[in-house]
Write a structure and sequence with these properties.
alpha/beta; six-stranded mixed β-sheet; four-stranded antiparallel β-sheet; 10 strands; 38% helix; globular; binds adenosine-5'-diphosphate; binds magnesium ion; cell inner membrane
Length: 252
């Protein structure tokens, strides 16, 4: 078996007195779709944000797409460490609950921003790629629309196109449909399934159990900063997943 695309070893994070992640270990293979479930406050967002160092953990080792980052004991990366962090980030994309589009840029401009400013792709080539990606998420005709004129589902699809534009090896999704009205969720989940079908490695925090059941290879269940269960999705939704999981599933 290949080295996992994402491997987290001994990841811990406190916010003051509160231990939010406690020695979390996790491995995700290339092409796997892993859904992270768990009650609110269990540390799911902090885990995802730690994986690309949007949040700096207190300790642990991250290996993401071949980039190894060990969190320094004093919290300060040296020059080599900073370089590793930058390389790691370039191989990942993140889709947020609140979309995080630039309001003063059109859909197309949002999608190509990183291509032009970070990857230095010539403008004409970036525009062509951006239009392809907008077509892929079903928004070819919205290229020149500003976010304020888009529905939540459309905004999230633009955000996914923006993530894909950076050609990441892994995409992290943090509750991508939680801010959406129920009737807009399916269009976003449909795009996510399509991306999953291309073989993209995906880590998805969500409460959409149907998506987890149908699209996930594995489910990771977190509670109080600990991975309580990490198993194939079929086992998680099966009858023998244990009392705590059954209780959680009955609530949703
Ligand atoms: N920046 C922060 N400062 C202080 N506490 C935080 C911060 N971010 C998250 N927390 C706390 O850490 C815990 C885990 O939060 P989070 O990772 O957002 O959980 P989840 O995504 O599972 O709901 C919660 O108790 C939350 O209030
Ligand atoms: Mg969260």
């Amino acid at each position: 078996m290949n080295t996992p695309q994402v491997r987290v070893t001994g990841l811990s994070k406190r916010f003051g007195e509160l231990a939010v992640l406690k020695q979390v270990n996790l491995a995700v293979n290339a092409g796997e779709v892993v859904v992270i479930l768990g009650p609110s406050g269990s540390g799911k967002t902090t885990l995802l944000r730690s994986l690309n160092l949007l949040e700096q953990p207190d300790s642990g080792v991250l290996e993401v797409c071949g980039q190894r980052v060990e969190i320094p004991a004093n919290g300060r990366f040296d020059r080599a460490g900073r370089k590793q962090v930058a390389l790691l980030r370039q191989k990942t994309a993140m889709v947020f609950q609140a979309f995080n589009l630039f309001p003063h840029m059109t859909a197309l401009e949002n999608v190509i921003e990183g291509l032009v400013s970070v990857k230095k792709v010539p403008k004409a080539a970036a525009i062509e790629r951006g239009q392809q990606l907008l077509a892929r998420v079903g928004l070819a005709e919205k290229a020149n629309a500003y976010p304020a004129k888009l529905s939540g589902g459309q905004k999230q699809r633009v955000a996914i196109a923006r993530g894909l534009a950076m050609d990441p090896d892994v995409i992290f999704f943090d509750e991508p449909t939680s801010a959406l009205d129920p009737e807009l969720r399916d269009e976003v989940l449909g795009v996510m399934r399509e991306v999953a079908n291309t073989g993209m490695t995906m880590l998805v925090v969500t409460h959409e159990l149907r998506f987890a059941r149908e699209a996930a290879d594995r489910v990771v269940f977190m509670e109080h900063g600990v991975v309580v269960k990490d198993c194939p999705a079929a086992d998680f939704f099966g009858d023998n997943s244990g009392e705590r999981i059954q209780q959680f599933l009955r609530r949703y």
